[in-house]
Prior knowledge:
single chain, 8-stranded mixed sheet, 3-stranded antiparallel sheet, globular
Amino acid sequence: MSEGALDKGHSFWRAYIANRPSPPERFLQLIYSYHKENGDPRTAVAHDVGTGPGNIAHRLLPYFDYVVGSDVAEDALNIARVLIPPDDLKRMEFVCCPAEELVEAPLPKHTGPGETDLLLVSECMPLLDAPRALKAFHTMLRPGGTLAIYFYGRPIFVGANSETYNDMYSQIADGALQCMQPFEGTPSFPAYHRSGTTLLSWLDNIELPTESWEKVERRKWNNDHPLSFCGKEGYGFEIETVDRTHPGEMKKGTIDRDFWVGEMNTDGLAAYMASVLPGYRGRPDTADRVAKVDGMLRQLKVAMGGGDSKARVAFPVILILATKKSI
């Protein structure tokens, strides 16, 4: 990567980290506690799938001896190697590889198939071919190892005028995704349909076969709001919920607006949406739709008090935990 490209990428990924919500430490501690209390509690190797610029992988270092981060975006991995302190990089490895093909990834032997203690799937499960990805995750884990899949969704405004702000956000998010329509009949339609179904279903369509996994937990926070970034209207095609969960799985829903929180102004919201829906502003044939989204953002800014006014937000979150069965 050239110095100029590196500088440009460095700025982009710093903005990405700044504008995307980061898990509270107690969320990572919950995952770690599950791992220590179920199956094989060893802490030699963790693997963060969909690591992007490595910010979540880096946060696993206090809990594990060695951490791998994988992603399909080589530029993100290059930036991770810049942003993370050199001493910490001595205990980390980054590899460019699709999640479904991790078994063939060029990894150090001690982090390869059957050597991973915790495999964390960060914010990317709706994009994956779930059966193929789960097969790869199962192979990567040692018997008794932990699989943790999480996803956070749309911001939920809380406090004064929150109902108004949430309604306005819904219109803005639907409008942003409509800037990328049509989806049906395009090569990317299967991926959008899979992603939409997964989010609408709160990942309950992700089956964890009982012959491979045990002690499955599905924990949902703020599931009185949608997990998807936009509503059905934004997709422009029919989506239905799918439930492939099994009897005996532990399911828990919690309404907690203090669990995973932040503050946003409309500029931050616009940057957040641009990171969630990259390219929604880039199509000349939908410039009128983009202008409409910008107009709605300005209306939200006025409603929030103008200027740099911020509002408190929480997030809907799903966490799936499972232990690889020992043979």
